[in-house]
Amino acid sequence: MVSLIVGAAFIICGFILMKFPPKSINDIYGYRTSLSMKNQDTWDTAQKYGGYSMIMLGIANGIFGIWAAIQPLTVNGLAAQMIFLVIGAIVMLVADEKHLSKIFNKDGSRKSYVK
């Protein structure tokens, strides 16, 4: 049940982050990492991709929550759902940072591609 609630929260927050991203780098909300806050370009890219990642993590948590409700876990269900959430959040952050590092240099400038 917890995974369903958390999944819905992640989907809603991800949608808000994608559709209504913070216009400028701030201390209140947004996808805030050292690379995402280098400049406005990295910030804007991180908000859109971070929102998408949050939606995907929310869907995965929702599916896990439905599965846990239909097929009760033999272990502590709440603990399993929390572990799934933490691992999912870590994977999301690593994937987001990897995505940003493919597009931007460490100083925040866009990588140039030679064709």
Automatic annotation (TrEMBL):
Superkingdom in the source lineage: Bacteria
UniProt KW keywords: Membrane, Transmembrane, Transmembrane helix
InterPro entries per record: SdpI/YhfL
Positions of transmembrane segments: 50-70, 77-95
Protein name per its UniProtKB record: SdpI family protein
